[in-house]
Specification:
mainly beta, 4-stranded antiparallel β-sheet, Cilia- and flagella-associated protein 52 isoform X2, flagellum, cilium, cell projection
């Protein structure tokens, strides 16, 4: 079942859940006087349902589109009457009338003549005289809801690239359009040629007006929210975020003011308190798997799926150096030593490589071939004489970084995702797809104890505080958990992610916990204990 959740906006709390649709809900619209809510089910459901807001119950439902056309994907209510709404989609535009006495809704198909269009967006004029639909072809159809006929269509020539994905009617006349190519346009019927336009980053997903439309907000596919003043038609970036799964998060040594995250093709540096994006480093069409700050804070070292290790300057984002073909099947994990002289990388083929970083040179010191599958996490001991690597082949290996040999090997029936040294460095804790948190003796690789880390799904991220009293975990159950290290018990649980948590860190100084997830979210939590 797919639920509709009704919220009280002022109190910021959930009123009720309305469940009837199966699988997915495409679109929702409130009636002008907030009497009704209309909802449109996804392709597996295919129905349109009208709900009474006062009774919090369904009034009636009906299949949204006819048999010989595609699915309806958008819905808009009349601006004047609570009894009329319009649905549109692949080859279908319908005007519906609600008959409250008989609890029925009656559709009328709109006529577009020879034109076959797939509707992406829809907007109603303030006086209900017309409604406008934006199509994947990149043109606009102006429809009359009374006669159900097409009034005009345009532009004839330069249609909007990648479709008209968002459309809004303005009180003063004219339309605001957003295209799939990120173009924001003000235009008027019947020509629909751009009168004012600006190019934004990412396809436009929504436009929402403030007041009469003297100012409006625009959201894009690349997770940008812009504020635009109508008069000068200039954009101001209000908020940004990652638009792909976030792979890693790191703090620079000894400060909680900033942190860096990576997702798909970009690395971003954020200001912790204000959540503002300070810097973005983009490498087009590549995927960044991991990042780390050098201890001196002069470079961000990153691991990429094209097998390169790239180092960037954290102030400017300038590429300082790149180590080409560092690994065969992409670089999957990375760590730096505290003397800033070495970088340790792990690859998709399972090799662990130690690199010597000089002033101008980067040279391979040793390739350690033990793991049979990709390396998922690397942690270095404080004195730089030892490191531990976790791999999805079910082993964790403790390496001697002086002799460049294997010290100890830990075996478990799991794909290891994360590993941490206890600050006193005689124990390590690991976790992975078997949902168990295991404590191991560094000296001989024996297991000390195992805890049940979560009830469902892998544990992907783990970090331990500087004192070693508590540690945090996060995984596919979308929860973050704070544990007491000695007792082995959960002290706090954080609910907030809607995707799988990929990595998690405690800030230096134990003020915050920052967790990142596969839906592109970065969440900052207050650390529950006084430091």
């Amino acid at each position: 079942m797919a639920d509709i959740i009704l919220w009280d906006y002022k109190k910021r709390e959930l009123i009720t859940r309305l469940s009837l649709h199966k699988g997915k809900i495409e679109a929702l619209a409130f009636s002008p006087n907030d009497l009704y809510l209309v909802s449109l089910g996804g392709p597996d459901d295919g129905s349109v349902v009208v709900w009474s807001i006062a009774k919090r119950d369904a009034i009636c439902g009906s299949p949204a589109a006819g048999l010989n056309v595609g699915n309806a994907t958008t819905v808009v209510f009349s601006r004047c009457r609570d009894e009329m709404f319009v649905t549109a989609g692949n080859g279908t535009i319908r005007v519906w009338e609600l008959d409250l006495l008989n609890r029925k809704i009656w559709p009328t198909e709109c006529q577009t003549g020879q034109m076959k269009r797939i509707v992406m967006s829809i907007s109603m004029a303030d006086d209900d005289s017309f409604f406008y639909v934006g199509t994947t072809t990149g043109d606009i159809l102006k429809m009359n809801p009374r006669t159900k006929l097409m009034a005009d269509t345009g532009p004839v020539k330069d249609k909007y690239s990648l479709g008209v994905s968002a459309i809004r009617c303005l009180k003063m006349g004219g339309l605001l359009l957003g295209s799939g190519a990120g173009l924001l346009v003000f235009c008027k019927s019947p020509s629909y040629k751009p009168i004012k336009k600006i190019q934004l980053q990412g396809g436009v997903t929504s436009i929402t007006l403030r007041g009469e439309g003297h100012q409006f907000f625009v959201g894009t596919e690349e997770s940008h929210i812009y504020r635009v003043n109508f008069t000068d038609f200039k954009e101001t970036l209000v908020a940004t975020c990652h638009f792909e799964a976030v792979q890693d998060i790191v703090f620079p040594f000894g400060t909680a003011e900033l942190f860096a995250t990576c997702a798909k093709e970009d690395i971003r540096v954020w200001h912790t308190m204000s959540s503002r994006e300070l810097l973005r480093i983009t490498v087009p069409n590549m995927t960044c798997h991991g990042i780390d700050f050098m201890r001196d804070g002069k470079s961000i070292i990153s691991a990429w799926n094209d097998g390169k290790i790239r180092a960037f300057a954290p102030e400017t984002g300038r590429l300082m150096y790149a180590i080409n073909s560092a690994h065969r099947i992409g670089v999957t994990a990375i760590a730096t030593t505290s003397d800033c002289k070495r970088v340790i990388s792990g690859g998709g083929e399972g090799e662990v490589r130690v690199w010597q970083i000089g002033g101008q040179t980067q040279k391979l010191e040793e390739a350690l071939k033990e793991h049979k599958s990709s390396v998922s996490c690397i942690r270095v001991k404080r004195n730089n004489e030892e490191c531990v690597t976790a791999s999805t082949d079910g082993t964790c290996i403790i390496w001697d970084l002086v002799r460049l040999r294997r010290n100890q090997m830990i075996l478990a029936n799991t794909l290891f995702q994360c590993v941490c040294y206890h600050p006193e460095e005689f124990q390590i804790i690991t976790s992975g797809t078997d949902r168990k948190i295991a404590y191991w003796e560094v000296f001989d690789g024996s297991v000390i104890r195992e805890l049940e880390g979560s009830l469902s799904g892998s544990i992907n991220g783990m970090d331990i505080t500087q004192e070693g009293v508590h540690f945090v975990t996060g995984g596919n159950d979308h929860l973050i958990k704070v544990w007491d290290y000695n007792e082995g018990e959960v002290t706090h649980v954080g609910v907030g992610h809607s995707g799988n948590i990929t990595r998690i860190r405690v800030s230096p100084g134990n003020q915050y916990i920052i967790s990142v997830s596969a839906d592109g979210a970065i969440l900052r939590w207050k650390y529950p204990f006084a430091s």
